[in-house]
Automatic annotation (TrEMBL):
Protein name: Uncharacterized protein
Superkingdom classification of source: Eukaryota
InterPro entries reported in the protein's UniProt record: Cyt_P450, Cyt_P450_CS, Cyt_P450_E_grp-I, Cyt_P450_sf, Cytochrome_P450_fam2
Species of provenance: Ranitomeya imitator
Matches recorded under Pfam families: p450
Length: 278
């Protein structure tokens, strides 16, 4: 409700009390943090030795070309870094939190992941090369992403021209939310769509099985730019956590799988007991 009011009366909302003020204040702090970082890097900048994305952006800014002011201005840098934080951090950490919740809810699945880690990785540091020898863990991670369904509504898209799709006329510029949720829970593709069931991604011999309805990163030209990185992060973090710990719920915990209300579908806060395996 508040964000609708915000869209319609932005100036008025700035003056009214309410929880939206906290969001605005947090946003301001977040942007100040990013701004302070790039101001610091601007002072230290050596265009011949660019250390990261911010340096590369600032170097473009200093080239003195039309695009230096048209595209590479401070406002765009602020939004770019902000988007990378939101797109790259919130998503992966939320998925990992779903993963830990599933592991404490289903200890027998956790046990199988532990066994596979022991068999394939042992006490070595997990590497991406290990994944193809770990079909069960791979299936579990896919199922965490399918079940977690962290961006159920996807991001909004809009057609660049008038189109007719399955008999529906959609004028240019119409907001469209191509729902990821309905695909990830499609009965035609997943045997038990509303259950956490890693076998969705395993064949009868226990080999990893792809499923074309696995689309948590969306599809098409504007699908997630960080998909490969995200998959690596999920595999490496998840296996490292389970290599080192056994996770259990605290006694009497309910382990509710209904997502909390928010921008992404995140699990409700839960407590966890981690016992070292070393
Ligand atoms: C589990 C992790 C992640 C999930 C589930 C996820 C999911 C998505 C989805 C559904 C979209 C919208 C695609 C569309 O509009 O059709 C998206 C866009 C995007 N994601 Fe991710 N993402 C994840 C991690 C990351 C990471 C780690 C990065 C980068 C560091 C990243 C960067 C982006 C960017 C830049 C876009 C916008 C692409 C565009 O509009 O062309 N994402 N992501």
């Amino acid at each position: 409700m508040e964000h609708h009011l915000y869209d319609s009366f932005p100036t008025l909302m700035d003056l009214l009390p309410g929880p939206h003020r906290k969001i605005v204040e947090n946003m301001r702090q977040f942007q100040n943090f990013i701004r302070a970082q790039f101001m610091k890097q601007k002072k230290e900048l050596d265009v011949t030795d660019q250390r990261n994305l911010i340096d590369a952006f600032l170097a473009k800014q200093q080239e003195g070309k039309p695009e230096s002011t048209e595209y590479f201005h401070n406002e765009n840098l602020l939004v770019l870094v902000g988007n990378l934080f939101a797109a790259g951090m919130e998503t992966t950490s939320t998925t990992l939190r779903w993963g830990l919740l599933m592991m404490i809810k289903y200890p027998e699945i956790q046990k199988k992941v532990h066994n596979e880690i022991e068999r394939v990785i042992g006490s070595a540091q997990p590497q991406m090369d290990h994944r193809k020898q770990m079909p069960y863990t791979d299936a579990v991670i896919h199922e965490i992403q399918r079940f977690g369904d962290i961006l159920p509504h996807n991001l909004p898209h809009a057609p660049t021209k008038d189109i007719t799709f399955r008999g529906y006329f959609i004028p240019k510029g119409t907001f469209i939310f191509p729902l990821i949720h309905s695909i990830l829970r499609d009965k035609a593709y997943f045997e038990k769509p509303d259950e956490f069931y890693p076998e969705h991604f395993l064949d009868s011999k226990g080999n990893f099985k792809k499923n074309e309805a696995f689309v948590p990163f969306s599809i098409g030209k504007r699908s997630c730019a960080g998909e490969t990185l995200a998959k690596m992060e999920l595999f490496l973090f998840f296996t490292t956590l389970l290599q080192n710990f056994t996770f259990q719920p605290i006694p009497g915990a309910k382990l509710d799988l209904t997502p909390a209300l928010g921008v992404t579908n995140a699990p409700k806060p839960f407590e966890i007991c981690a016992t070292s395996r070393r």
